Amino acid sequence: MTHPALDLILQRTSINRFDPSHEIDDATLRELVRYAGEAPSAYNFQNWRFIAVRTPSQKARLCDMAYGQKKVVEASVIFIVCGRLQPHLGLRAALRPFMAAGHVDGATVDAMVDSATQGYADDPQMQRDEAIRSASLAAMTLMLAAQAMGLASGPMIGFDPAQVSAGFGLGADEVPVLLLTVGRPAPGNWPRKPRRPAADVLEIV
Q: Does the predicted TM-score (pTM) go above 0.90?
């Protein structure tokens, strides 16, 4: 089976070397995040936030927090992908447009908010798990959008979370889940690494 979307999945690879002369404009950044926001999330929490680090001075600061990795200053932009804790607190607002469009009534929204509150309010581990899940799904969607736009990307976990949180003003209810470099690839990147076959990772019952 072939399809442009499937081809993107097979073509995407994580890039470490970027063309430092390449720039990404505001409109493209907004488009990337718009597509990232189409990712799924429990209850439609949409419990993610993106900080687009693009100026040289801010990239240099972030590079120090990422143990001096050059790709942080060479990429066109680095997204700090944040997951939000206490997602139930924002659920009513997230569902408001859905209710305004007539898809659900107030009682249904109340029931969803009550269910989410019971599931998350008193469970910090569940909140953290959900923050990481949601942010990761959004980051993957952003990577595929970047690939479709002719850009390259690379997710990173090599950074100091406490420094990033303090240095870029993350809220007490936000977790810096990963950094995501985006830009134009430079020569010298490795080819796409082989993946394990489906037979090795699939059990059908």
A: yes
